[in-house]
Amino acid sequence: MTARADAQRNRAKLLAVAGAAFASTDGTAATLEGIAREAGVGIGTLYRHFPTREALVEAVYAAELDDVVSSATALLAELPPEAALRAWMDRYAAFHATKRGMGETLRAGWASGAIATPATRERITAAIAAILEKGAAAGTLRADIDPENVTVMLLGVFLSTAAIDTPEKIGPILDLVVDALRA
User: Fold this and answer.
1) Is it the case that residue 28 has pLDDT exceeding 70?
2) I want to staple 101 with a disulfide (CB 3.0 to 4.6 A). Which of 22, 55, 116, 164 is the partner?
3) What dihedral angle (degrees, nearest 10) is formed by the CA atoms of 33, 36, 38, 40?
4) CA of 39: how far to CAs of 12, 15, 82, 131, 155, in Å?
């Protein structure tokens, strides 16, 4: 059964507001009541879609992961591979920032089994592989790079720059990563 259009809109609004709230705080400061209010719905509507905080966090995480992974294909359709790679890295950095705000809830949910453990790293590495493959075919990105190594390198950048995680400060570091991957 397909959800009514207004229910789908409410769910989408709740996910967007929750994602922004988790990205801008440590995650614990984002209250469910505040998220519902900001989304323009009642708390009952939030609980109908997401019966627990963990369910909301899991849904935001899954939606963000889907967006970042699928953005690789969309960016490759619009941009040359090296530009698509750099734009994708910005999207991945935003995902990582959102994930950090949900970290405590995600870790606890994964440990307890309340939240399914996603294949995040594999999906991210597959997106990187697609971009590198297209760039290697175009002669603009190195063909001798293991996509898993790029994933590890990006995670290292994100973890080591957590305190300065602003586009203005992380951008030049990501530019260096792209430069290292150029043919």
Assistant:
1) no
2) 22
3) -140
4) 9, 9, 37, 35, 31
